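### Sample
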Amino acid sequence: MKKARALLLALLVVTTSCESELTNEFDVAQKPVKVNIKGFSTPDAVEIRLNGKPVIINDNSFYTQNIETTLNFVLDKGEKNPLAIYNHETGSQIATYEINYDNIVDYENFYFFNLPDIFLEVYAVKPTINLGKVGFKFLFANLGEFSGTQLESVKGVLKRENGVVLATFENIGKNDFSEFKIYNFFSNTAPVFLELYKPGTTEPYTGTSPIKVQIIQTYGVNMIVLQEKQENGTVVVKGDIDIADYL
């Protein structure tokens, strides 16, 4: 009788162990995915597709202005889930991303701006500012695209036309907006200029000639996107896009 009980106990232990192994294997082979999407598109409407299927937001498969939704699904190990953004009017693909078992943490929060001639993967919040003040922060969206520089950021010095320094930005990078600097508002019409240098130096970040970007000074908050462009074979930097206009 004792032998029978011992055998039964052994069988139960083996069975439980096998079930535990199977359960653990199943758990390891799958992961729940949650993607929080916050975007903005103007003037074009965009579509977001997951695995080729449209993402419906407020009963619509395409959307403009503020775009917010959360995707929840389960991902198998070895499985690839493409997340893509399309221009609704033209059907052209704007951007695509591959979500897989190993990189899901990179897509927990997904932010974008789709504006004329530029697509940005960036999170942006408009800072508050007191009356009578002007504030600036910068993003260098395509740093190195035409200049070929390997720098991840540049230093920016914002000046009045007469050379008086208004603010210094030690790190203007490609992925996030720089620190927010504030000064007293002084003119509705006078331009301001941003000079760009290698970090920690007074050397132009590329080439040997001074790099100066004329910026339109707007009363209040300015969130300027810098872009390298090529004009007549020469690399220039423009600062014509203000994200604050869309927030």
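The longest strand covers residues 30-50. This sample (DUF4493 domain-containing protein) is used throughout the tutorial notebook.
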